[in-house]
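Lab notebook, entry 409. We have the chain sequence and a SMILES string for pyridoxal-5'-phosphate, and the next step in the workflow is to get a structural model of the bound complex before anyone spends time on docking refinements. Request logged below.

Task: model protein plus pyridoxal-5'-phosphate, output structure tokens.
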Amino acid sequence: MSTSTKTAKLKKPAAQPSSAPSSAVLGTYARQDVVFERGEGSWLTTTTGERYLDFASGIAVNLLGHAHPKLIKALTDQANQLWHTSNLYRVAGQERLAERLVAATFADRVFFCNSGAEACEGAIKTARRFHHAAGRPNKKRIITFKGAFHGRTLATIAAAGNEKYMEGFGPDMPGFDVLPFGDIEAVTKTIGDETAAIMVEPIQGEGGIRALSVQQLKALRELCDKHGLLLILDEVQCGLGRTGKLFAHEWAGITPDIMAVAKGLGGGFPVGAFLTTEEVGKPMVPGTHGSTFGGNPLAMAVGNAVMEIVLEPGFLEAVQQKGLRFKQELARIKDENPGVVEEVRGLGLLLGLRLKPPAADLVKACTAEHLLAASASDNVLRVLPPLNVSDEDLAEGAKRLSRALKRLA
Ligand SMILES: *Cc1c(COP(=O)(O)O)cnc(C)c1O
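Result returned:
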């Protein structure tokens, strides 16, 4: 680009669909016009010294709030020792975190990456490779569900089948049969010779805190067993203790063959992973998959610290109790705002309010009350406090949410 073009461009910045002033950052987000400088527990402080109660938790990422002393220590200790070596060599932190995840789940093997989308992509590749290695190369298609969110890569947008996220990015990646969420009859009808797997979030996060019932999850497991398909669960948002169990599928008493995790696993440091059984993971031999940054020592140090805390005796029970009490508070708030709040949804501290007025308006009203929450599809406000939130902060959050709803009225 010539200097003159650049100067001309700088004089006239492109309008961005956002309340925030335009910047050199590509305008892919409709950001709120606020910059945070510091965080502590459930609280964030802006560059101008204003405090916000953070029940967005970086979209279910800051699992243990901000600046948790154990996470800071794990990261800084590792930072003083070694940052990166690549996967040309063994990485002690990976082996430790993989052992922890394996001990706590259905899985026998773990692959580390850096994000949820990569975890889902790895899960899809592993499912296809499994059938390929077993002499069933025709089995490539994956059944997925409307309203799902599996990330923003070309495969994961095709998997979710959300037109809004696919428009203009074609050709669309083939291989996915996107069915109505939880429609077991449609799944039964769609399963064919080419079907390799069913991929689903036990509770849709971006889709609006929409949960599969225990019966639906069991039915999917049974269909997979009956037809020799793999069940891939995307627990990127609902996993890691968010629902009060380590993973949401535990509520249904079933296990997947492959599971994608990310978000909360690094407590704010980018970490993703997919977990698999020995049998299913076997064809993923050297050369089949990889990631330069995946399982980096810094990420593993934080991931190990997060797992240590989440697996402490009583931690998940406390999440269940806090979740129950807070959901009752939300139900009371719903009753106080008839015709505004239509439904309270979710489990543990993965909660949502389905609204009559636009959810985006309530997000803004919450921000005005210095409470952070995230919107989701299906006109839902997501309320995602850190799992170690205090009772006092939960009560404060409920008060602020009540006041925000009054602003809407
Ligand atoms: C956020 C999310 C993803 C994508 O994660 P990224 O880290 O943004 O790639 C995938 N699946 C689910 C269920 C998610 O909530």
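Notes for the group: The mean pLDDT is 95. Worth checking against the assay data. The first strand starts at residue 36 and ends at 40.
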